[in-house]
Write a structure and sequence with these properties.
Blueprint: E1 2-6, H1 11-22, E2 26-31, E3 47-49, H2 55-64, E4 69-72, H3 79-84, H4 86-106, E5 111-115, H5 140-159, E6 162-168, E7 170-172, H6 187-196, E8 202-204, E9 216-217, E10 219-221, H7 222-237, E11 245-248, E12 254-255, H8 256-267, E13 274-276, E14 285-286, H9 291-297, H10 305-318
Parallel strand pairs: 1-2, 1-4, 2-3, 4-5, 5-6, 6-11, 7-10, 8-13, 9-14
Antiparallel strand pairs: 9-12
Length: about 325
């Protein structure tokens, strides 16, 4: 059984590739290396450098490798930047997904696991986000992910495509030291970069209505996330009915202050974070329930906050 992983040279995608190999599923990677790294792909895993916008390349890759399913992670992923580059975001995330589905239909590839995002919810007005929570994206990025889900839904109705979409929040940590988060926007690499460069990390706002006054968010270890993709792929391959979307969440979340404390403990670098004003639009708490994924995919979080921070620090030191 072979599955194609789009974006398989990225931080998340490379962990998914390794999880598939460990599960006995042969992966093939397609990535344009706009944010991924060729070195993240094992030498013995087939690698195709190319764009989701190249339908012919997609179809050829699917056919040549006899692909039975796709994990679709590739896309433009920076929500804040998407506000300034909406057309680019839609081209990469919506047009790219449509062309992938076109190529899959041409090659009779029957299944896809879509990497969606909690950004589809915007700023929910509930304490615990479930799959029934109303979607209200607040950025072109979030909107593009929601449209991607719609494309899968409609293609499923039209062709019988088996599909599910995984919505998740903040992905952190490392499953192995050679793979690490290189995003210039994510909290963990920003904090670790600051500490290693002798700067003091910053907290934006300490007067939120939360236990310690700082924002509470859902964080998920990248290895746990990769396992969810394996479980979804196996279920789709077996023809097991799945829900259209699943949240991958902790159910309780952690605060920015807790993360800072864990960072000091893991790195051995004591610091007191600088306090900056709130950022406009930052909600006090966004936490999701993972109960549906636990029920249908047998998925659960296995890594603690300490695990997440320690593994991220180990990978940062290795590079």
């Amino acid at each position: 059984m072979t599955w194609m992983v789009t974006g398989g040279a990225g931080y998340i995608g490379s962990h998914v590739v390794r999880a598939f190999r460990q599960a006995g599923i042969a992966p093939v990677v397609l990535d344009d290396l706009s944010s991924g790294h060729r070195v993240f792909v094992p030498d013995d895993v087939p690698f195709v450098e190319g764009s989701l916008l190249d339908t012919a390349l997609l179809a050829r890759t699917l056919g040549e490798h006899e692909v039975e399913g796709v994990v679709h992670l590739a896309g433009f992923k920076y929500a804040g930047v998407s506000v300034d580059r909406p057309l680019h975001t839609y081209e990469q995330n919506v047009t790219g997904t449509a062309r992938l589905l076109e190529a899959m239909a041409a090659q009779d590839v029957p299944a896809i696991v879509f990497s969606s995002s909690a950004a589809v919810y915007g700023t929910p007005d509930v304490d615990l986000v479930t799959e029934e929570t109303a979607t209200s994206p607040e950025s072109p990025y979030g909107e593009s992910k929601l449209v991607g889900e719609w494309l899968l839904r409609d293609q499923g109705r039209a062709t019988g495509l088996r599909h599910t979409s995984l919505r998740y929040f903040n992905v952190v940590g490392s499953g192995t030291p050679e793979l690490y988060d290189t995003s210039p926007h994510n909290l963990f690499p920003l904090v670790l970069d600051a500490l290693t460069q002798g700067r003091t990390p910053r907290i934006n706002g300490t007067d939120y209505p939360t236990p310690d006054g700082t924002c509470v968010r859902d964080y998920i270890h990248v290895a746990d996330l990769a396992d969810a993709h394996v479980a979804a792929a196996r279920a789709l391959s077996a023809g097991t009915p799945l829900e259209r979307v699943y949240n991958l969440g902790s159910g309780d979340g952690v605060s920015v202050r807790q993360i800072m404390t864990a960072m000091a403990d893991a790195t051995g670098i004591p610091f007191e974070p600088k306090v900056a004003p709130r950022r406009p639009g930052d909600p006090a708490r966004i936490v999701a329930s993972g109960e549906l994924a636990a029920r249908d995919l047998g998925w659960r979080m296995t890594h603690t906050l300490a695990d997440m921070v320690r593994s991220a620090w180990e990978a940062r030191q290795a590079h």
